[in-house]
């Protein structure tokens, strides 16, 4: 690729890295223990930059994005620039490291976004490239990439998944009504956005109270994305989930985990296990499931991103334990009334240590997102 002046090159780098980040979202929540990375290969033979190869981490985590992009580019990769949303891997497995593959393919320049905290990779991927004579530019749109890869980074650094607390609040600060099951608070556009969030997560978590009151499915119901439904997790220390619950009936399509006390009713456990429910034996502290230990177990299962969807007691437990990393609040225009369940959080009651990341509107509904300051 011919070099432009520095400001022009910086603008090009940001443009193509933004495209790589959009590409990497394609398999969020579907790449097992590996992060969903995007790679775009660009060359310029004098007529302007042209994309000659694209790749995203495959479902299940292999092949990596760099391998996919190089295969698509073929010989056009020689002398080109590769835009990668995460530092290329440096460790040998069944295949050579991606950093080495980029160099062998003749890539002239690599532009990276987020750094990989994995000690097998951190700094080593870029070192392999530089030693091979490849020019490396680091940290282009690094903040955007780190935000998108937050689950992977959290599991790498703190050995637990990233926890997102998602709630829908009425105009009078309620999240539902007692004894009425699911109460619609937001409109169809906002609900579709929630389903898209689910499609990019590893799991959705609720308490047994919500499971019994609402009898939800917790699946993705957007046309064409039904197969993107994440695992469902229910906190149910005493195993009160009935075998006829909708969560159980849908188990053939989407996994269901129940976090239960090891001393809970054996017969109830066996009945649900026969129907395909997977149990996570948990420790109990003061009558409640020990959440830090549960998150350790979920990370061991390969989960990097968990959305906590309800209810108020579970949300408060995660908040009190300091285990919430991201807060997503939807606001509907209607009121629930005096019979409503008070939200444990609100736009004017965000815990210390969070910064507002974005605000949006979905038709008549508002939305705001906060992330924990690292």
UniProtKB/TrEMBL annotation:
Known cofactor(s): Zn(2+)
Cross-referenced SUPFAM superfamilies: Cytidine deaminase-like, Dihydrofolate reductase-like
Active site: 66
InterPro entries reported for this sequence: APOBEC/CMP_deaminase_Zn-bd (IPR016192), CMP_dCMP_dom (IPR002125), Cytidine_deaminase-like (IPR016193), DHFR-like_dom_sf (IPR024072), Eubact_RibD (IPR004794), RibDG_C (IPR002734), Riboflavin_Biosynth_HTPR (IPR050765)
GO molecular function per UniProt: 5-amino-6-(5-phosphoribosylamino)uracil reductase activity; diaminohydroxyphosphoribosylaminopyrimidine deaminase activity; zinc ion binding
CDD domains: Riboflavin_deaminase-reductase
Family that this chain belongs to: In the C-terminal section; belongs to the HTP reductase family. In the N-terminal section; belongs to the cytidine and deoxycytidylate deaminase family.
Protein name (Swiss-Prot/TrEMBL): Riboflavin biosynthesis protein RibD
């Amino acid at each position: 690729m011919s070099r432009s002046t520095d400001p022009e090159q910086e603008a090009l780098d940001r443009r193509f890295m933004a495209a790589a980040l959009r590409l990497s979202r394609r398999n969020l929540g579907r790449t097992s223990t590996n992060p969903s990375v995007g790679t775009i290969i660009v060359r310029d033979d004098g007529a302007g930059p042209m994309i000659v190869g694209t790749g995203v981490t495959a479902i299940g985590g292999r092949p990596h994005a760099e391998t996919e992009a190089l295969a698509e580019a073929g010989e056009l990769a020689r002398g080109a620039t590769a835009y990668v949303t995460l530092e290329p891997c440096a460790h040998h497995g069944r295949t050579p490291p991606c950093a080495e593959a980029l160099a062998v393919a003749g890539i002239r320049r690599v532009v990276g976004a987020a750094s990989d905290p994995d000690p097998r990779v951190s700094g080593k991927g870029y070192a392999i490239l530089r030693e091979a004579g490849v020019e490396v530019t680091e940290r282009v749109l690094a903040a955007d990439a780190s935000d998108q890869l937050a689950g992977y980074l959290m599991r790498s650094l703190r050995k637990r998944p990233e926890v997102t607390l998602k709630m829908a609040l009425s105009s009078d600060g309620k999240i539902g009504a007692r004894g009425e099951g699911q109460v619609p608070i937001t409109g169809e556009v906002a609900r579709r956005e929630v389903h898209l969030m689910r499609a990019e997560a590893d799991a959705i978590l609720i308490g047994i109270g919500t499971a019994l009151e609402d009898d939800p499915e917790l699946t993705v119901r957007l046309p064409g994305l039904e197969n993107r439904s994440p695992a469902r997790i229910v906190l149910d220390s005493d195993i009160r989930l009935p075998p006829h619950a909708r969560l159980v009936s849908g188990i053939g399509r989407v996994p269901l985990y129940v976090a239960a006390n090891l001393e809970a009713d054996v017969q109830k456990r066996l009945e649900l296990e026969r129907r395909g429910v997977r149990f996570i034996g948990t420790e109990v502290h003061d009558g409640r499931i020990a959440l830090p230990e549960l998150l350790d177990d979920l990370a061991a299962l390969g989960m990097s991103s968990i959305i906590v969807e309800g209810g108020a007691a579970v949300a408060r437990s995660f908040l009190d334990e300091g285990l919430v990393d991201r807060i997503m609040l939807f606001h509907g225009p209607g009121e629930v009334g005096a019979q409503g369940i008070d939200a444990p959080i609100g736009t004017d009651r965000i815990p210390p240590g969070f910064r507002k990341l974005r605000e949006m509107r979905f038709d008549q509904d508002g939305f705001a997102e906060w992330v924990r300051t690292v």
